[in-house]
Records
---
Amino acid sequence: MQHETLQILTESDGLLFDIRYATPDNLAGRAIYRRPVALLVPEARRRLLAARDMAAALGLRLLVFDAYRPVEAQWALWHAVTDKRFVSDPRKGGVHPRGVAVDLTLADPAGAPLPMGTGFDAVTSLSAHGCTSIPVEAQRNRAILLGLMTAAGWDHYGLEWWHYQLFEPRRFPPLAASAVPDGPM
């Protein structure tokens, strides 16, 4: 197992942010982060910035909803979601608490999110990659996001168009909130 320091992603990285778990607009219905911050281990950060560069070449931007998630926050989501296919069991560590997963979407140059057929964290079969029961434009946007992230070295979770993770994520240990630079989330 590797242990790496989490690195903060910022707007100076050319990314957009809407950290949903720092607001009540999420599956738990309440803020579960104290501050809106996105963190990743160095390898994941490098791969995300590679995807950012490829998106920019297409005139698109990446909008990040979530990245590292403390185990404590994973528990809040675990208790809030009935369909456990959409949230990892915190007892098994999950991938977000390892700092190797990111939830994101595509945005236009002005920062407006592109249509994806469902919202972020929609607990429905319509959220699955390859779903053809959504408008063609949304299918195309999902395919572009999948292509960019795959080309940058990310794996995906089939039920969630927004979720990407490093391959072999369990080589990284789960991290508690105390691992966050500048204090807990």
Note: Residues 42-57 form the longest helix (16 residues).
---
Amino acid sequence: MFENKRYMTRGFQQEISLELQLTIFQLIDELKIKSKMDYLQVFELSKEGYIQVLEHRMEEPEYKKIYRFAFTRPVTAKVFVIDDGDHTTVMLAEEY
């Protein structure tokens, strides 16, 4: 799971900075080494001043972890990362 080609929607590419995109992919890559992963990864992004709050969760197995990073342009968004077996798609929740 999450070992195949990755595709990003236009909204994700435009709304989420490259630095934050890479952070999301890094968190997925680190988690897939440590544990079994659900086909759907959810990232809830919020901001506290210049702090980017990133809540990463999945349902099966149940997982939730919150990260805080200093970012120059923190954003508020919900991101879905979906692996259908052939490819991985990253999109904003409103693009689903």
Note: The first helix runs from residue 10 to 15.
---
Amino acid sequence: MAILGYARVSTHGQVLDIQELQLRAEGCTKIYAEKESGISAKRPVLKQLLRDVRRGDIIIFAALDRLTREGPYRTLAILELITSRGATYRSLAEPWADTTTELGEVLAALVGYIARKTRQDIIRRTSAGRLRARAAGVKFGRRPKLSPQQQAQALSRRLAGERPEAIAPSFKVSASTIRRLKPKPS
């Protein structure tokens, strides 16, 4: 069993000293520290910690926002990964986020349930909203790079035998955009 710490600051101008002192005071034998944004997917030190964690280990972090700022679902996914490996975790700033105690386990499970339920509600509401918008004639996706008139002109030139590579610069688009143009069914 090891007591591992995780410390993070967002920019290279910030320092990790306070977090590292807190983690050492809690008995961390190894501290994984990095200077990366909490919303960044490129967090090599966090990834390494999650690879290194073993059954019986305790992971301590100064606060949940040090772990990630990618939102509650990513936070829960990281915490679930930790517990799925047989390890426990503890946040120094959020006493309820402490699976080293029975009460903490219950609270963490409750928060996980609430987050999953909230996520399901969000998915249900956004799906219903998309259906309403489609029914009202709202078009989704990117706007076309070419107006209908430009599409007709480019298609006419292509059907006349001009190469897409020659047409594309006059419309400031790629040749593949010209290749994708299809005649409108009559």
Note: The chain has a mean pLDDT of 89.
---
Amino acid sequence: MKIFIVLLLLTASSVQATPVVDTETEYYVVDGKDARAIRADMNAKREGRYDAYTAWHVKWRFFWDKQPNTCTITKVKSTVSVKFTLPKLAEHTIANQDAKNRWNRYYHALIDHENGHRDFGVNAAKEIEAALLNMNSYKNCTILEKAANALAHKIVDEYIVDEKQYDIDTNHGLNNGAFFP
């Protein structure tokens, strides 16, 4: 029965976890007559080792109720800022049909992979909201504030580790079709 109540509380909190997600996408345009030429253009224009990059940052705010000998978190709001950097095939491409077909398969897999990165940030924010709402009361708000921020930072750090493992497991999306040509 005790486990059921804990699960019910966690489920109820995660239903309330609704982070705001702000997304920005920056494209670099590539083109070429065939897949090899498009790859060469992509290699010349991308920044770093990878065709795409997703960065996320979680911010949180919490509010509390202060009583004479207790301080309790009553509300949590979080925001996830996500920035995608992606290649984009030129609108009026000179690519042949084979290159266009390859690009479309690649691009769908690439977007799926990058959305996986985004989801780490969104899930971190949801977990932060749920965890902070489920914190015990503290004797004073200064101690509560420090404990809540430490917990939120710990959650973000865990998601960063998991995200790195995601890239290892997927070979940066290559295992899921995010390779071109």
Note: The two ends are 55 Å apart (CA to CA).
